[in-house]
């Protein structure tokens, strides 16, 4: 059997993306076909460092070479009779099988020579507008007041001389 392979002139670099864990679709009724999964960018700080942002999640990864290159191919089936329009006589019709002849072609879309491996836990991206300052989890920015009247501690408590354990009442 012969396999015909056509090569496209696609100059884009292909990567294999390796993630830890699994990706789950929350709503099975929504189709994500032909939708981007996220944004992959190469960091300016490092040679092989990449950043992948998917929704509100940020991943940091490194590029690693593959031991063997991986071909990205596309399978195309075509009818053999679709390109040939000929006038044939009755004798030729009797010789033709009822099965249609189908040719299969494989087109090379790209060659993957390296992978980007994301091995650390993802970082959650929280927009600055959704952060409420003053909560115990968040520190306030430098422009906000350092203390409020309700949170100021008593510097020197005053005790009654007769009973040093109880505070003085007014």
TrEMBL record:
Where is this chain compositionally biased, Low complexity type? 135-164
GO CC annotations, alphabetized: Ctf18 RFC-like complex
The protein depicted here goes by the name Uncharacterized protein
The alphabetized list of GO BP terms reads:
mitotic sister chromatid cohesion
Output the InterPro entries linked to this UniProt entry: Ctf8 (IPR018607)
* Organism lineage: Eukaryota, Amoebozoa, Evosea, Eumycetozoa, Dictyostelia
Coiled-coil regions, chain positions: none
Tell me the organism.
Tieghemostelium lacteum
From the UniProt entry, list the residue stretches annotated as the region Disordered: 128-170
Highest taxon, organism lineage: Eukaryota
A Pfam family cross-referenced in the UniProt record is Ctf8
